[in-house]
Specification:
By secondary structure, this protein is of the alpha+beta class. The protein is built from four helices and six strands, in the order ββααββααββ. It has a single domain, classed as Heat Shock Protein 90, CATH 3.30.565.
Length: 136
């Protein structure tokens, strides 16, 4: 994997951090020349994951880059927190399940909006969600 642009990790510790994450993702999506539909999908997924990082993970970071692999170009984002982790991954990825007061579409909805979705978590150790949206 080669990164065409790799900004520093963005702190997500307030709702302002969630807004900044969305703005940074929009810039990366435009740099990658994703279609408007794919930009919207990526920004929506990133917004949900940034909110999860803040609300369920107690804050964390987002890092992102335009990447190139096997002749294709996309945007890869990683959301990391040091919160409680996810005990039951299958349950957490079920539509409608929520650990709080949300609609239960954050993780499952984000997964549907992107091309690659990797969830790395362990109880008591935090969570990292890495997503990639490839250009068409």
């Amino acid at each position: 994997m080669s990164a065409a642009s790799a900004p520093d990790a963005l702190e997500i510790t307030t709702t302002a951090g969630v807004v900044q994450a969305r703005q940074q993702v929009r810039v990366l999506a435009q740099q990658c020349r994703l279609s408007l539909v794919d930009q919207t999908k990526l920004i929506t997924a990133a917004s949900e994951l940034a909110r999860n990082t803040l609300i369920h993970g107690g804050g964390g970071t987002m890092s992102g880059a335009v990447v190139e692999e096997r002749g294709r170009r996309g945007v890869r984002l990683a959301f990391t927190d040091h919160g409680p982790g996810i005990v039951d991954i299958d349950l957490a990825l079920t539509d409608g399940w929520t650990s709080g007061s949300g609609m239960g579409l954050g993780l499952s909805g984000s997964k549907r909006l992107v091309d690659d979705f990797v969830l790395d978590t362990a109880p008591g150790e935090g969570t990292t969600v890495t997503i990639t949206k490839w250009g068409r």
